[in-house]
């Protein structure tokens, strides 16, 4: 998170999620049970609204990271989004459900003020037996793509997240999948590859190995400092990730779609280079974000090489949430960003860790340079 994610202000509205997706990453961080409203979200939005009123840019609130904001009845989500609209707080809404008309109306209102980016997550081009097993209570994929189309038609900037990108499912027909996304009017595609607990690997292998040879290979540790053979959490081999991301990037560009990866560090494929990996650039209001290793990559991309400290120079120049600029913000907010800054500084002191998190960078004689073997 500290090295790769800009979007850390979470507008969690539920204690858990009722969709029951097999691959759900959030289950590692939250408790199970019946979803209950989290009313602290109103306090968060009101506090950010005060900053907006003082013309201090804020990071958009993500609805949400650990649960779907539109799981029924979603009354708290409706109230929270209305409050964000009233106080002019920018938001990113991420869902696998088709919202009610009331929810759609407030999303349209937010977008009319430049306060919204809508992210819709899918795993494949269309529903199938495998998809229904993986996402038993999510809206059918066809409905989610219809949501993107309806949103785009009323001026809501929409992003499609292929999350997680599952080998043997999400990559069966990349061109047709991206045709559907482009047809729906999305502005951007974001991909995030599958990662699984080692003991669950056989589940995916049984379902999808006939469609992808990658299941016959050794998967890698998702934990940067844990050997692959010991890692409890594993991910698709880097070679597959690079090849597949390149295909999605190329085909997205052909269709006029912006492209990014999420927490993959394959920054060379992100286009345009002026766009963040969340699509916050589609907002129509002033906003800011925390620095990440993306800023180190951009420095190396622009100048041919970069020192670790160049990231902080860029951070100050771009007015990101770091260093002296954090003094503009109340302690409840700056404290969290300072903690992430501390962790990012720790990462930058470990070149081998940076190379693991951002495989398109190599450390050479005190500088980070673009990895020519990948680019």
From TrEMBL:
<keyword id="KW-0479">Metal-binding</keyword>
<dbReference type="InterPro" id="IPR007197">
    <property type="entry name" value="rSAM"/>
</dbReference>
<dbReference type="GO" id="GO:0051536">
    <property type="term" value="F:iron-sulfur cluster binding"/>
</dbReference>
<dbReference type="InterPro" id="IPR040086">
    <property type="entry name" value="MJ0683-like"/>
</dbReference>
<dbReference type="InterPro" id="IPR058240">
    <property type="entry name" value="rSAM_sf"/>
</dbReference>
<keyword id="KW-0408">Iron</keyword>
<keyword id="KW-0411">Iron-sulfur</keyword>
<feature type="domain" description="Elp3/MiaA/NifB-like radical SAM core">
    <location>
        <begin position="7"/>
        <end position="219"/>
    </location>
</feature>
<dbReference type="InterPro" id="IPR006638">
    <property type="entry name" value="Elp3/MiaA/NifB-like_rSAM"/>
</dbReference>
<protein>
    <recommendedName>
        <fullName>Elp3/MiaA/NifB-like radical SAM core domain-containing protein</fullName>
    </recommendedName>
</protein>
<dbReference type="GO" id="GO:0003824">
    <property type="term" value="F:catalytic activity"/>
</dbReference>
<dbReference type="GO" id="GO:0046872">
    <property type="term" value="F:metal ion binding"/>
</dbReference>
<dbReference type="Pfam" id="PF04055">
    <property type="entry name" value="Radical_SAM"/>
</dbReference>
